[in-house]
Amino acid sequence: MMYYDEELLEAKRERERRKHTTLETGIYAGDELIEFVYIILPNSQIYVPLPKRFVVMPDVIKNVKYPSMFAPEFIMSSLDVTVNFGFNQLKINDGDVRSMCIQFQAALKNINPSISIRKQAEDKTCQNKEMIWFEYYGFQLDGQSYNRVCLIKMKYSILHVVFSCPLEDKENWVIIIEQIFISIKEEL
Predict the structure, then answer these.
(1) Dihedral through CA 64, CA 69, CA 73, CA 77, nearest 10?
(2) pLDDT digit string, tens, across residues 107-135
């Protein structure tokens, strides 16, 4: 009989998880229900849905975690700073996201030749904006990381988004970041 109780609890958990599969209802990452809110990127009209509990990464931590001069301009982070979204607006009017993607990949390989691009795809946002992304594994101060770089052609710029989390958390975040990237909006 003891096993029946465990099966009931598991069925209840699974039913609860099925209620939370969108940015509007929240999405589970592991056992944690993550709720989302749209933020406006600084000096822009770009709206990005991010976890409610994320905060702007303090410069002191940013300088340690991202010591390069190519660090993202604006970083939102989990409270333990293990999961990060970094944003740059590249002021390019007629930029081709495909060629820029190739340039970013080459730059990453120049910095660290051991990086190999795992997957790459093209898509459109909910506003039908051109988007291309690629993923790779990297190393940071806190261990091996899963990284996804996304480029979205906006009206007057290209939005460069970098996502990073510990490699062991990848499966919890892949569906979430796909929904976030597709949901990025620009006020027209």
Answers:
(1) -20
(2) 888 888 888 888 999 999 999 999 999 99
